[in-house]
Every structure is written in C-alpha cells, then in structure tokens.
Fold each of these.
Amino acid sequence: MKQQRKKFNILFRTYGGKTKNKQTGIGHVIRSINLAQKLKHDANIFFLVEDFGGAKEIIDNYHFKFSSKIKKEIGYKEEINLLTKFIQSNNIDFVIIDQHKISDQIIKKLNKYTKTLVISDLEKLNFSSDILVNGFVGLKNQKNYTNHQLQLLGPKYQILNTNFSKLHNSKKIFDLLITIGGLDERNIAEFILNSINDKLEYLKIKIILGPLVKKTIFIKNLEKKFPKNLIVIHSTTNMAKEISQTKFGITSGGITSYEFASQNIPFAIICDDTHQIPTAEKWNKLKKAVFLGYFNNSNKSHIQKLLVNLAEKKISFKKSNTKLIDGLGSSKVSFEILNMLQNSK
C-alpha cells in the first residue's frame, strides 16, 4: 500500500479589514486566500491575521480552519515573539507574509526557523526572504535568482483567483461594472452613479460593493428607480465571470485592476489611496486603462467631468490584443513554494 505523503505546514501572516479612516482594505487577505487555495491540497494552511474588521470572517468563509486573529498594529518585538512561538509549536515549514509595511528585520529573524516568502507591491524588492513575489505592472516579467533568493517579478506573477487563468468570452450583459475594492470607505460608487445620474436610464450597470460595505440610501433609491438598469451585489464567487460580462469597468488601483486586464476588458481607475497612484499611472501609460485621478475634494469636479465623458462615449478604448497577465500567478508561485519545500527535505 502506497504511503500518503505528509503535508507541509504553511503559515500566512496577513492583515486587512474595515476600520474607520484606515485604508486597510481586504486586498492582502484575498490575495493570501487565492494562494492558499492553490496550496491546500499539499499543505495544512494556517492564518495569523491582523484583523481591522471582518477579515477573519472572510478567511473562515473559505473553510480554512486554522485561522487566528492577532493584535492590531502589533509591535515589532511582540510580533517576533508571537511568530517564532507559533512556528515552533505548529512545526511550520514555510511562512508567507502579505501585509503593508513589512519589516525586513522580522523576515531575517524568521529565516532562522523556517523558509519565508514575501509578497510585496510597487517596486519594493529589498527583502531577505527565500522567495520574493512582486506582481507590480511596472516590473518586467522575470524569474531571477539573486543572493540566495528566488525573485518572481512582474504582472504574470500577480496572485489572482484561478478563475482568471482563462479568458472568458461571455456575452456583454452590462455597459458598466463598478467595483471599488472591499471597503469603498469614501463612497466612490455612489459618487460615480451621482455623476452620471441623468444617463442611468440608457445604461445597464452592475455594482459589486464588497463584502464589508453597506448600501447607502442613495443607492437603494436608485435601485428602486431603475430596477432594470442597476444591479447591486455585495460579493461574487466568480469575479472573472462578472468582469467578462461587462463592456467597461471602473475600479480602484488595487488587485482588481489586474483582474480587468487579465480579461482584456477596458477600464478606468479612481484611486482611493495614494499608494494606488503608481499602479494607475502605469496602466494609463500602457494604454490598458484611463486614470481618472485620486479621489479627494480638490479633484472631484475633474473626475466628475471625465465620468460624464465616459458615459457619453467621448473617451474611446481599443481592446488590446496582447496580455501582460495570464492569470496563472497563483499556480506559478505555489509551484515554486512546493518545489523549494520538497528540495529542502
């Protein structure tokens, strides 16, 4: 009888959730879940999540039973102690860190106990982990070995849900899909609808608010007024399908921008946080999207004019025949993790 291979123990350290005036979002959590889904057949998956509201609940909904909350805005020494104790007591073979403001000092400490991987954004490359993953659209797609580190760089390594690994040629049911991340704390979806209010009877629009967002009274009233033109949902099990069913999208400068690009759907970006601006500018430069601007009081009127121009088709888009993203990032990254673990036995 063939002996079943022992599973590895892999720990995800991530953060996210909804807290007033803190743009934490749930992008890091969803990205970690996407990678964990690819690894769960070969590994026992553990989560330590810095939960700013609703993040652990999202993880639990994917049936990862070993998930725990840790203290918000945990201090450096506390985190080192927590992680090293957790690694030792649970025989962790590999730690994956996906969070804002990653401390390389923590990575160096963890390297004494286990293999490590850092998922970073923009052009942040200076980490001491065994594997570095950075799917920023501004980086060239490449696989590098440098200073005993494996680097997986560029948008083809962006970790998306596996549904994005194929191009969905669905019937275009909607003229516009609006999805502003998991929080939309600034009510950008409402602002978009208000900007094109007089065009709503001529458009079919779908909004994905995010699992932690409540409908505003304004949106509820518009739903009643335009029941055939406006569909509003909180979440979806297949974002790739949702995107493929629209002619055009409006999103923020986070992971969803990569999802639109993977399906060759033209889109516009409104940034709700300054760290999204470099991504939006790069998509704009590549002519994959139009950057409408950073959402603040001084820029609202400018964004509003551009939204009206979009609704009146004064801004045109050509579908790209080339894809920067194949949607296989999670498969590529999980393969390298398992390969490293199997070769380090």
Note: The chain has eleven helices and 15 strands.
Amino acid sequence: MISIIIPVRKINKYVQETVPEILSTQAEDFEIIIVTDKKDDANRWPKTKIISSGEKGPAFKRDLAVKYAKGNILAFLDDDAYPEKDWLKNCLKHFKNKKIAAVGGPAITPSTDSLFQKASGAVSESFIGGGGARNRFLSIGNTREIDDWPTVNLLVRKNIFEEVGGFDTNFWPGEDTKLCLDILNKGYKIIYEPCAIVYHHRRNSFFGYFKQVGNYGIHRGFFVKKFPQTSFRFWYFCPSLFLIYLVTLSLLSFFKINHFLLFIPLFIYLLALIIDSLIISLRYKPLVGLLTIPMIFLTHFWYGIRFIQGLLIKELKS
C-alpha cells in the first residue's frame, strides 16, 4: 500500500486539483493524507484523510502524517503538484530491489501555468539556469542512482524513513537533502526515474519566486559546510563565482582597467543566455524565452548573494 502525503496550510485550489488527479492514477491500493494547519472535518474525497498539525512547517507535517500512514511506501507530494496517471506504477517497479530506499522523478511545469510561471520554470529547465539539476524539471536522461532529490516528487520505504528518523525539522528548505543523505549513509540507494512525472505549478509572482531562490541559496551555502558529502559541488558555487567576477570587473572598470580579455567571460555568458532563450522559445513561446534572459541573470545574482551568506552564517534559522 502507498501513503501519499501532502502538507499544506489549508485546503486550496491546488489541492482541489491534485487529489482528483491522484484518484485517477493507475493504482488501487493507496491512501491520501493531507496535513493542514487547522482542523478540517470536511469529507471531500474518497481514500483521503485530513489531519491538523497547527502552524508547523512542511517537514513537521510530513513526519506527523507518517504516524498515521498505513502504507509501506510513502509518496511525498507538494500541494501544488499533481501526478501523471502512471506515476506510481513507474515508481513502484524499482522497489522490487530491497537496496532501493527511494525513487524520485521530475516535476514539470504544467501547460496551464501563466506566462510568468512558465518563465520561472524555464529558468530551471535551461542549460545555464538549471545546469546539472535540469532533470528535476524535465523528463530527461536515463534511470540512474542519485544522492539528493526534492520532496515535490519522492517515494520512500516507510521502514527506512523511520530507521533514519524521518525529516530533520530544523531545516526548510533542505530537509529533503538531509533525508536523502541519511538514507545513503545507511547504505541504501535512491533512484531517478524520468517517467515518474508530476506537474508542478511554479511561483506566480516576482517576489514569491525570488524569495524561494534566496531560500535555496542560503540553505545550500550552509549545507556546503554542514553536509559537504552531497552539497560541496562546483555548480553550487558558480552563481557566487560569477557574482564575484562582476564585482571585480566593475572595480577594475572604475580604475579604468578595461582590457577586452577581462570581458570575454561576460560575453560568453550573455551569448549562452541568448542561446538558452532561443531553445526555451521553441518549447514555449518567444515571450517566455525572452523573459528568461533577465530572469536567469537575476536568479544567478540573488542566489549567489544568498549562497555566500549561507557560507558565512554559523547557524541556520528555519
């Protein structure tokens, strides 16, 4: 049996979209557990129970839901994500191998999202914006072992989840990175399955998107020190290195040191932005591709600042 767990502040329009989509999946033996801030006694859907946690974070809510879960597989899903019909089927086949503790799949931007949502999603899908993490947002690549995956689309064996102590509620975001590391440290494997697709609505406002980017940046910077086994990766440093390059370039220009060789990395970066925007335009619309040019730049700039902040702070406040 599978227990599908969704943390949310309250029942919203996304949950009202997500649950019917889950109920139509190609699986029979599952339950849905929704954890809300306040008690909600409405019996809206079959196979679904709603429990309350108080005003707690997603990690706490997921841990609480596990205590009520009857399934031996836990399927973690965000409230603003809904699955393909064969989502569970494509994940469950991997659990025949007892060494596999978890399976994750991509979270794709829905075609119904707004122009800004598609642009913000396209930033992570792009080569220069998403880099080595593009398979989190697109169904690309082959099935393979991974060491870190977000809980927007992650299935975990319940007994192993309990063995590692569940989520570390001191972190959000980042609790999923810590969970994956704990699983690996116990000698188990995590698998990426490109066909285990969910659709994930992106942030629909400029402020909401960059708040999320900043949170990711500061947490990853802190995790580089705290959990270097899976966070000390060159590509996590790239936005900060680019930021330092821009500051250095500005200072040199101020002192009238303007040799053309100094600008070559910037020209390459701008060319890469243009090429990426053209590729994105083929997937979406030209306006989406055009919007990604300033958005990728601002994403790198803000993430770079917050990443450095994460490197410097002694403790991380969730």
Note: The chain has two domains: 2-105+149-204, 106-134+205-318.
Amino acid sequence: MVSTALSERINATQFVDTHEHLLEERTRLAGAGAHRLLPCVDAALLFAHYAKDDLWSSGMTADESERIFSPRVAPADKWALLEPYWRRCRQTGYLRAVAETVRILFGVDELDRSSFAAVSEQMAARARPGFYRDVLGRAGVEVAQVNSLESPFCETEYPDLLQQDLSLMNLSTDVSASLVEAWGRMSGLATGGLADWHRVIDWAFERYGRRADAVKSQAAYNRRLNYAAVPADQAAPLFDRMMRGEALGPAERKALEDHLMRRCIAKAEEYGLPVKLHCGHYAGVDRMPLDRVRRNAGDLCPLLADFPGVSFVLMHIGYPYQDEYIALAKHYRNVTVDLCWAWIINPAACVRFVKELLLAAPSNKLLSFGGDYANVENVVGHAAVARRGLGRALSELVSEGWLGERDALDLVEPLMRGNARALFPIFRVPA
C-alpha cells in the first residue's frame, strides 16, 4: 500500500521524460499515412505502437491487423475485430498504457464499440496546433527527449519541450554509399574516403551537437555491442570498398562499424554528450535473437572501460537480463540505467528492478521514465503506469525495512527529474 504522502509526492512531481520517438506535431496533423508510424488517426492509433505486438502475439491475423489500422475502416467496425484480442491482452503493460490513456485523457473507464468511436471523435477534435504541449502536460512531463524517426536530428517546432537526440545510426551502423553521398550533399563536404567521412561526422557534431541532449544508437537490433578498437588504416580500405559497391563480409562490416562507432563516441565525449544505447528487448514480433540480447551487457564492458569520460545511458533495463545492468551501474562510474519503455514491457519486473538497483547502486544511476512512443497520447498512460510502479517500489522498500519514509520521499524528485537534469548537459546550456 502506497502511503498518502508518497503518492501525493509522486503525483505532484513532473517527469523529465528521457526517451520518446514522437513524430513532430506537424507530421501528426498532416494525417494518416504521413509517416509509417501514423497508419491512422482514430482510436486504433493508441494500439499502433507496441500494443499491436501483444495483439499479434495473442493470435491476431495479418488481415485483421491491416483492417484495424486502416484509415478507411470506421472506428466502430474496428472494435469488433479488436475486442477479442483486447480481452486476451488487457492485463499486459502495453495494453494497460492504452487503458490508462483513454481513462485519463478521454474519461473512458471501459472500452467498447461505442466508447472506441467516441475516443476517436475526441482525438480528432483535440488534434490542433499546440496539442502536444497539452497532452504532455496531462502526462506530468516537463520536457521530453526525442530520438526522432524522421531525421537524424529533428529541427523540432518545440525545442523547449522536445529536446532532440543526435542519431548515430547513419553515421556509424547503417552507413552505405547512398547515405554517405546524401550526407555529403547535406554538408557540402567531399565523401571520397574514410578521412572525408570523419570530416562529415565532425560536421554533424558541429552542426547539431551543441543543441542535442545526447547521441543515440539502436544498433543492438542488428548486431552485438562488442565494438573493437579498429584503427583507421584497417577501416579505410573497407570504407573504400563499400563506396565502390562491393559487398563486405560480416567480419569486415563489423570492423568498419566498430571503427565508426568509436569515432562517434569520441566526438560525443568532446561535446560532453551522453551516449544512449538500446539494450535488451526488441520492439516488433517474431524476430528477437535472445542469445545476442543476453550478451549486450557483457559486450559493453570494454567500451565502458575505454571511454571513462563518457556517460553511457543503458536503456530499457536490458530486459529480460536486467540483473547485469544493476551490476554495471554499481561497478562503472560512467553508467546510468534508464527505465524508458520498460514499465510497459513488464511493470512487475520494473518494480523489482527499482528496488534492487536502489539497494545495490547509487540512486543517481537511475532514470525513471521514458514513454518510447511515436504517438503522444500514449505517453499519458505510460506515465501513469510508471508513477504507480515507482510508488509501489519505494513503498515496498519502506515496508520491508530497507528505507525510512523520509528516505523514500527524498528519492522521488531525483528519480523522476533531478538525475536527468544533472546528467544531461542540455539543462545547463542557456536557452
């Protein structure tokens, strides 16, 4: 049972939201189909990011999924398709976030055919310029950090509200001849060889680094995180071959990416930017190699040791191998673990994780919330799940005798916002 004082403190404290993929408001207002993560704009959109993975896992067919997320099917008709899978999944974190969103934002306690259509109408009515700020305010989010899926660094409409990551994917992992040439056109720099590409990387940091909150890589979706120290003279011929259109073997491709990633991390250190790394569970369905996921934490240790001046933010608690991330936070001065996304992957695991990390590692090593959504409304529901879970974790530590009530109350502000404000230099840059 969460005490009244603790509940009130948590509910009154705003989150610094350390991870979202929010589409720009202008993209959302452009309507269905404006981005691959915006298939429709009715209530089905609340299920389109993450919730649909559980629906699929529970047995939804491809044809049903296509119709549910189609902009051409009426919302009331969608509910008939969706309802049986909603019943199977409504207890999961993904679906709980949807339920909390419709309760808090739209005043709906129980979804059915009528309320699904009513939520759709409300979503359409509220989607007006400025509504992102209103929705994030309802979530209790004072500022959100966005890893844009629209550009490597998004020139956002709301820089005071939506801080931006600089993505390293195009610079280090997804590098191809066509992308190199595109960056060359954007920067106005030559791209003939590896030394030229180094200058493009330098240009990207010079252009965006002082406005970025951090750099971000989700390369763990495609490879191990064992980045070896590959010197330039070994990487240069590989880069040249790639630019000539030659196929690199797996070991060769890894060596080139290793070199480029370490180059980017060195630039991040120069600019004082934390390095955010996806770790653990995969979004999507039917494609996660758990053996590779299991190695994430161990693979990172040489990188953590080789860059002691870089703050590494290890995301999603590495679920389902979260114990290793507590050990990394305890051992390495430059490691912080982020609960972003994890509250809706498995809320109960996150409660255990908060308790165990606080008993093993310094409390400043934990960031407590990031919605990880492309659509803004679901941030509200996820934030509610996170507040509930954080309250339960701190209350259990009190009831089990590990913390006093005052200690628990004193942890709320740093866990919800203070740790992030201390970690990310963007909070110390004059506006």
Note: Residues 42-126 form one domain.
Amino acid sequence: MCPQQKCLIHLIRDLNQILLGNPFNAEVQAATEQFGSLLRQIVASIDEHGLKRHYLRRHRPDVEHYFDGLARSSPQSEPAQAIRERLLRYREKLFSFIDHDDVAWNNNHAENAIKQFAYFREGRVGIMSEAGLKDYLVLLSLYQTCRYKGIGFLPFLLSGERDIEAFASSKQRIRRKATLPLYPKGFTPPHLASLKKPPKSS
C-alpha cells in the first residue's frame, strides 16, 4: 500500500470550526495552537526550499515529539478529546509529505486533477459503461501525470515509451511526425472516392 497524505487544509478548517464553537475551552485552544505552530514551521520551510524531502525531513523529530505528547495527553472536554482522537487516528497520514519530494500538504493538485472527470461525468449519468469508464480514467491519469511533469501528453503516447519518468528525464525526446492512420485499411472516404480514377480497360 502506498503512503497517503491527508489534506491539511480541510483538517485546519475543521479545527477552526471546533475552536469557533468552543472559544473559551482552554484544551481546544491548546490543541489547535500546538498543531498550528508545528505546521507553520514546516510551511515556512516549504516557502523557502519547496517540497523537498532533504529540507523537510528535519521536521520529523518535531512531528514525532508532537504526536507522542498528544498520545500521552488526556483532555477532559469532549471537543478536545475529538481533536486528539482524530489527529492520532491519522497520525501516519498527516505529515507523509515531509518524507517525499514534491508531495503537496494540501489536496489542490488532486482537486484540479479530478475536475476533468467531473466535467466528463456531467450529462452521462446512467449511460457510462464500466469498461469505457476504466479506459477514460486510465487516459485521464496519464494526461494529468504528464501535465504535472511538464511534458506533452500526445508526444508521450507517440513516443512508444511506457515509463513517464523515463520519458520526462530523457535528454533526447523522440521527435518524429505522427504516422497514425486516418482511416481503416481498405476504406476510402466518400469525399476521396471521386478522386480515384477507375483502371483503364485493355
């Protein structure tokens, strides 16, 4: 199973809602303040160096220290207990991005990537087949991956390469004209049929 990264933007929104609903709860204030302080430090590193594991890994001890302290805590109020349980439940999925290059701490990339599927789905409810949907999703996944890698979707398909990473890092991209057949073999489109002269009879 591949590592997962939860969207921290949505988590922060939910924590803010709990805080707004319990403005005088000292336990809620402490829980949200500690998490916010930790995340602000990490985001400051992202602003300076980008989403690079080399720079973000230095925050791993702080992350573990935070969660260890959270696990030892025993808040009395129900809202603070809910925060503690949620953060501990997703402990392994909240800061996965610091262990990998170019993994966003929010889900902006994911939301943008599925917009095309949302557009495709409109007006097709009840008429999409499972096989057709699978093919579409495979192509959409390839397209979005090429997009984020900064490479052309069609050039990748025409290259014959099966590894996007290899294609993206190659210094010598295949540059050849497409030789895709426009019509099936043996088929002559009507607008070209009149241009073909019948063979002369001997």
Note: The chain has two domains: 8-106, 114-176.
